[in-house]
Structures are given as C-alpha cells and as structure tokens.
C-alpha cells in the first residue's frame, strides 16, 4: 500500500502568493472587468421576503436540481417502486429529510395519527394496543443510523449499468431517529419464554411484514416517530416506523401498526419470493439481514464531474457498515495499483455513514477512482469479482462490491468495471 501523502494545499497557496501579486496585476490589466465584482447585482438592490413569507423553509431555487430521482424502466409502476437519494450533491453524513430515498410496495399511506394504533399480540402475557399519545409516555432515545435497501447497487451485479452514484448507490439515507427502544414495549407486554421471533406489520395497502429474531428486537431496535428532529415524512412511515439498525431496509417496517410475537419465523412473501440471495446453483441464501461494509466516491463521479482545470482537487465519498463503525477508508486514483488512506471527517457512529475525503493534485490525466471501506470488525470491502466468485450473478441483493469511476481528461466521469 502506498503511503504517499496528498500534496500540501498550504504549500500550493504559499507558492501562489509568492508570485501572485505581479501575476494578478498583469491579469487585471489584460482582462475585462468582471461584472460580478464591478456591478450591483439584483439581490443587492431590493428588499427580500420577510420572516413570515416562508413558514416552512425550503432550499434555494438555485438548488432545485437537487432532488430524488427514479429510473423509469426499473419497475412496472411508480406506486410500487423506488427513487434515489442524490448522494453526489450532499456532504457530511446527515441526509436531509426531503432527499431520503423512498421505497414503496403500495404507495404512500396517508395515516391520521389520531386514528392510528400499534398493537402487540401473540406470545405475550398481555396483548396491548397503544395510541400515539400512549407511546409518547415511554422513554425515548436519539440515534443516527443508515437505512439501506437490500437492492442498493443490485443492478450492477452483471456489470456497469447506471451512470451515477445516485442510481448505483442512492437507495440509502442516514438520519437521526428519535424513538422508543422496542425492548420497552415488548417488556410492557411481557414476552413469553417461547417467544423467539417478532413479526412487525405495516398499515399500508401492502401490509408489509418481516420476521425478526427476538434477540435483535431486544437489542437496538427503535419504534421511531421523528427523523432529524421533526416528524417522520409520510413517505418514511408517518406517524411511526420500526428502525432495525444495520439490517436491510425492508425490515424497517413503515406505518407500523402491529407486532406479533411467535416461536418461529413466518416466511412471508417478502422473505421468500424476495429479499433472498439467489446463488448460481439455484439455491437462495436464507436470512441475510446485515448490510456489509460498503463505500462509494460521490465526487468526482458521473453526476459530479471535475469542473476545474488541473491542480488541487477534493475527492469525497461515504462509507458505512451494518456491523459497526468505519475506522478506515482507502482510495485509489489508478484502479488499485496504489492505495492511499483517506481522511475521515465528522462523527463516527455505530451503523452510520462516515464521510471521507482525499485531497490531491490532478495533473489532467485519466483517473480510475475506487474506495475501499474497512469496518470495526476487521472486514474489508471486496471487489465485485470476489463477490461473484462466491455468489455468481443471479442475485439482486447485498452487492457491496467496490465501485469504479473512470474520469477522462475533461474531468467527466462514467461507471466502468476493471479486472
């Protein structure tokens, strides 16, 4: 592994300043005046909106392109479909609520919280029904977690398909959830000794269900009602959803209405016909819940090309693991010949996104960009070929292989694979 350090930006700036005065003066005399400097701009000449004009804030109109997007051919109908978080437009680790990807099986349920109930039944001492006001009386916690669809990057199993990290990796978001530890609600109902599994059920028209072992339910699951400090959005399960940290997103049941306790898994539709990993021999792996360590470079990338000429360049991306934290991310500029340790900046939470950066001087030659995450268990993100050697190309789910972007001399990037 190469330990070459990135060029010093301070050195670059110091050198520029040493000759900058004379150069700047020469350029100023040779170039026409810049109207952005010499002329008053419209926003400098009139009063803007008052404090009551926008009672719920929204992004600048100059950021109107930063939106979730879908892939029209991916599903037969947008009611049972997915759209994608614009990862290439974001920084830090928190996904704004309005940009968190959506995955629905029967469209968005518009639930009246005053008429919503959460029931716990099955192998419990006393079946219970909670109103939203009942739930507000339980102790609550704040936790930052990523939520990743099991099919994130699934289109890439057979080769490079979609040109943009929004589409290859955008079935993920990372927010702060406020909720009640599920353990407290189950303890209130009293789980019987033979209660080994729970089956959460959603209140939407698809009645989404999944089987979850009682150990996970009693560990770190939350019944959440807020994200990033405000109420859940309807598309994210308002008024209440299940949070299953580190595990595939379809288990995070939205519009949560019922939790049944049982003595064995239910093997319902979404854990048999879907959300299983089909191997080359036609046998599907059973219950692959955890999301393995993964990363992606968000810039430069196909939707975020290099817009400047050669010189100081900032590479950035995100990494995450369903088994812990990310203590290290490596990046390569030459397709894996030389690896450099990236700089992780920001908080390092368990089962959360991590933001990494790598600063370098681009000389204008083509780049083959990759990132490789290491998680706190010692697991290292594999290549796509390493995954295929084990699982073949029949699968849709749990593709955490290393992603490659080719950046050409113009700074434009595309999705490629290298062997």
Kindly list the characteristics that best describe this protein.
single chain; 419 residues; alpha+beta; Sulfite Oxidase, Chain A, domain 2; Immunoglobulin-like; 2 domains; five-stranded mixed beta sheet; 7 helices; 27% strand; metal-binding; heme binding; sulfite oxidase activity; molybdenum ion binding; SoxC protein
Quick summary:
With 419 residues, the protein is of the alpha+beta class.
Mean pLDDT: 92
SSE class: alpha+beta
* N-to-C span: 19 Å
- Domain count: the total is 2
- Would you list the SSEs in sequence order as H and E? HHEEEEHEHEHEEHEEEEEEEEEEEEEHEE
Largest sheet: 5 strands, mixed
Q: Radius of gyration, Cα only, in angstroms?
A: 24 Å
CATH superfamily of the largest domain: Oxidoreductase, molybdopterin-binding domain
What overall form do the CA principal axes indicate? globular
Q: What fraction, in percent, of the residue positions are helical?
A: 10-25%
The number of distinct helices, counting runs of at least 4 residues, comes to 7
| Percent of sequence in beta strands | 25-35%
Quickly name the level 1 CATH class of the largest domain: Alpha Beta
Unreliable residue stretches: 1-26
CATH topology of the largest domain: Sulfite Oxidase, Chain A, domain 2
In CATH, the architecture of the largest domain is Alpha-Beta Complex
| Order of strands, widest sheet | 4-3-12-7-8
Secondary structure tally: strands: 23
């Amino acid at each position: 592994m190469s330990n070459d350090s990135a060029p010093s930006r301070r050195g670059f700036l110091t050198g520029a300043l040493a000759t900058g005065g004379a150069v700047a003066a020469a350029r100023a005399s040779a170039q026409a005046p810049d109207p952005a400097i010499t002329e008053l701009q419209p926003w400098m000449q009139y009063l803007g909106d008052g404090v009551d004009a926008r009672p719920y804030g929204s992004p600048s109109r100059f950021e109107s392109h930063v939106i979730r997007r879908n892939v029209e051919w991916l599903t037969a109908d947008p009611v049972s479909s997915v759209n994608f978080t614009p990862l290439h437009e974001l920084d830090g680790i928190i996904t704004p609520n309005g940009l968190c990807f959506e995955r629905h099986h029967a469209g968005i349920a518009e639930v009246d919280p005053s008429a919503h109930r959460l029931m716990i039944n099955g192998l419990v001492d006393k079946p219970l029904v909670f109103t939203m006001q009942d739930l507000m009386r339980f102790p609550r916690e704040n936790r930052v977690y990523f939520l990743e669809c099991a099919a994130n990057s699934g289109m890439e199993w057979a080769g490079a398909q979609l040109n943009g990290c929004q589409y290859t990796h955008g079935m993920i978001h990372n927010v702060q959830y406020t909720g009640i530890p599920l353990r407290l609600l189950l303890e209130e109902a009293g789980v019987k000794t033979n209660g080994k599994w729970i089956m959460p059920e959603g209140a939407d028209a698809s009645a989404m269900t999944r089987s979850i072992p009682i150990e996970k339910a009693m560990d770190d699951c939350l019944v959440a009602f807020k994200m990033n400090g405000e109420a859940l959005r309807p598309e994210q399960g308002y008024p209440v959803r299940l949070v299953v940290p580190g595990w595939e997103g379809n288990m995070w049941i939205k519009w949560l209405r019922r939790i049944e306790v049982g003595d064995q898994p239910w093997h319902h539709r979404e854990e048999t016909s879907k959300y299983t990993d089909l191997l080359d021999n036609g046998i599907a792996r059973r219950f692959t819940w955890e999301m393995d360590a993964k990363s992606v470079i968000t810039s430069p990338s196909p939707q975020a090309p290099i817009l400047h000429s050669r010189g100081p360049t900032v590479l950035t991306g995100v990494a995450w693991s369903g088994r812990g934290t990310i203590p290290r991310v490596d990046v390569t500029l030459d397709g894996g010949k030389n690896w450099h340790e990236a700089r992780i900046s920001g908080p390092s939470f368990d089962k959360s996104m991590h933001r990494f950066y790598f600063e370098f001087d681009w000389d204008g030659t083509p780049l083959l960009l990759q990132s490789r995450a290491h998680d706190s268990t010692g697991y290292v993100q594999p290549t796509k070929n390493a995954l295929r050697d084990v699982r073949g190309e029949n699968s849709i789910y749990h593709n955490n292989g290393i992603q490659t972007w080719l950046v050409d001399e113009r700074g434009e990037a595309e999705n490629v694979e290298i062997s």
